[in-house]
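W.,

You were right to be curious about this one. When I first looked at the sequence I had no strong expectations either way, so I just let the prediction run and decided to look at it fresh. Below is the sequence, 277 residues in total, followed by the output.
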Amino acid sequence: MSRILEVERIALLPEEVMETSGLAERHGRLWTINDSGNRPLLYRLSEDGREIDRRIRPLGAINVDWEALAQDETHLHILDCGNNRGNRDWLQLYSVRWQDLDAAPDGASVPATRINFRFADAERVVRLHDHDNDCEAATVVDGKIWIFTKNWADTHTRHYILDPKKPDQELVSQGRYPVHGLITAADYDAETGMLVLLGYTVRRFSSRAFVWTVPVNEGAFDWEVAQYHVVEPPGQWEAVLWQQGDLLLTRERSILGDTQLGIIRMDQPRVEPLPER
């Protein structure tokens, strides 16, 4: 059986991040980004999540389509990996040091490194929202960046591993998994060894959000024990972050609702049948 997880609203996010697409946490404060068509800025939220109190620009970074944030102890990583049309061969990873972000005032710029990467085993298909090479989800696991594709055509996801300490890389998939929808975010909790994948289904007149929770053991996960959960209310949920066993999420503004920051309390009891695998 699958639980139905209710999102409790924490705050309506400011207009400046109405296209929020990534989420990270540092010293109890949340950082987010906007996706394509927006400025290449990192935004730190106020304590209540209702305002922006820092806007930081990574030097040399371009926002073609920023879609994910991933973090480790020393760096915040920005993944410019969105590929709605399928026409991008090379994607970018920008990394900035946390110590530079900690010291930077509002409006400042900070140094950034850049790595180009591509999915070397993917067939190139240039067709808007009808291919399997889009990408919006990433997280850090044991010092490596795990990347998950957003497959418009087959509604699976492919898993890739990027080394943030190496130069430009051509990646080969570690596996392909039937998530039954479009993956928009990922996060890994090193304390519990649990990976979460956030996504939504594609339907003509409606959309349903969901998460998969997957245990990770010794750098690998067994999809056979993954659990699927429906997320309510529906909406364009774009970012997810573990926080002390619960899930923080941000939602981009769409016809399904306003931009907001919410939390899922993972002890919720409601259940419903799993989708067919």
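Here's what jumped out at me. The mean pLDDT is 93. And, maybe more interesting for your project: The two ends are 13 Å apart (CA to CA).

Coffee later to discuss?

I.
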